[in-house]
Amino acid sequence: MESQRVIDYGKNYDVIVVGAGHAGCEAALAAARIGCRTL
Questions:
Q1: What pTM was computed for the model?
Q2: Which of 1, 19, 25, 32 has the smallest set of CB atoms within 10 Å of its CB?
């Protein structure tokens, strides 16, 4: 039995940050500040 899940966010991103700890928040902020489309 295979399970497939497709999530379509409808946008393209330059950076996807996984994790909301200190490092994840800093990475997301730094990427956003230099103009990257960040998720």
A1: 0.65
A2: 1
